[in-house]
Design goal:
With about 240 residues, the protein is of the alpha/beta class. It has one domain: NAD(P)-binding Rossmann-like Domain (Rossmann fold). It is about 45% helix and about 15% strand. It contains nine helices and nine strands. Strands 3-2-1-4-5-6-9 form a seven-stranded parallel β-sheet, sandwiched between helices. The chain has a two-stranded parallel sheet with strand order 7-8. α1 links the parallel β1 and β2. The protein is globular, with a radius of gyration of 17 Å.
Length: about 240
């Protein structure tokens, strides 16, 4: 890769929240950013903001559960290669396990776990071309029992093991795979979080993280050349007291 060649990132879930914060920071740093998500309007807003500051970005509308559509994404990025895949796509809803339907289970597990595999698998050839890195964003439900979120917690635990397994398998190709596990983060999702104030009161730092703070940690994991198979928890110390 020549010095003039920009670094290239794909940011899944880049239309909002943590993914959007990552895309904006990468765009400002001179990366070429491909923003992936289901909501075309949100993707366009992110791309417009990056372009307004002189950055290079494009939107690619896709559902991470769609294997064939992600193959089309791979065809776009593979010729040049890929330096960084950030997977911030995800979703969940609260439901007691005894009331979960098969459709509800599949919707959350497919988005969070299957989507993580599909993205990683389809973009692996492009990552291998540039010896790039993968960073999955994994909500910290996986660390302990999470009443009301059996589907989401199980999926996130699966992503953690997927991260470690891919790190081992892909190390010989120079591809690093890590995860970042944020706690309470000041995004749209926080407003829908049950017992939000009660949980925030238990955080030793007594506040939620900003999306930019989490994005900074994600980019650190993406750029650190000798870290692979790790999960970095960013929760203000909540895991120390819970």
């Amino acid at each position: 890769m020549s010095e003039a060649s920009p670094q290239i990132a794909v940011v899944a879930g880049g239309g909002s929240g943590i993914g959007r914060a990552c895309a904006l920071r990468l765009g400002a740093a001179g990366w070429r950013v491909i923003v992936v998500g289901r909501d075309a309007d949100k993707l366009a807003a992110t791309v417009t903001q990056i372009a307004a500051s002189g950055g290079d970005a494009e939107a690619f509308q896709a559902d991470v559960r769609d294997w064939e559509r992600l193959a089309e994404l791979a065809a776009v990025v593979e010729p040049a290669g890929l330096d960084l895949l950030i997977n911030s796509a995800g979703g969940q809803f609260a439901a007691p396990a005894a009331e979960l339907t098969p459709n509800g289970w599949r919707a959350v597990v497919d988005t969070n776990l299957t989507g993580a595999f599909y993205l990683s698998r389809q973009l692996f050839p492009a990552l291998r071309r540039r010896q790039g890195a993968v960073v999955h964003v994994v909500a910290n439900l996986w660390q302990r029992g999470a009443a009301g979120y059996a589907h989401s917690a199980a999926a996130r635990a699966g992503v953690v093991n997927l991260t470690k397994t891919l790190a081992v398998e892909w190390a010989e190709h120079g591809v690093r795979v890590n995860a970042v596990s944020p706690g309470m983060t000041d995004t749209e999702g926080l407003q829908r979080y049950p017992n939000r104030e009660e949980t925030l009161a238990r955080v030793p730092l007594r506040r939620a993280a900003s999306a930019d703070e989490v994005a900074e940690a994600i980019l650190f994991m993406g750029r650190s050349g000798y870290i692979t198979g790790e999960v970095l928890t960013i929760d203000g110390g909540l895991q120390l007291v819970s």
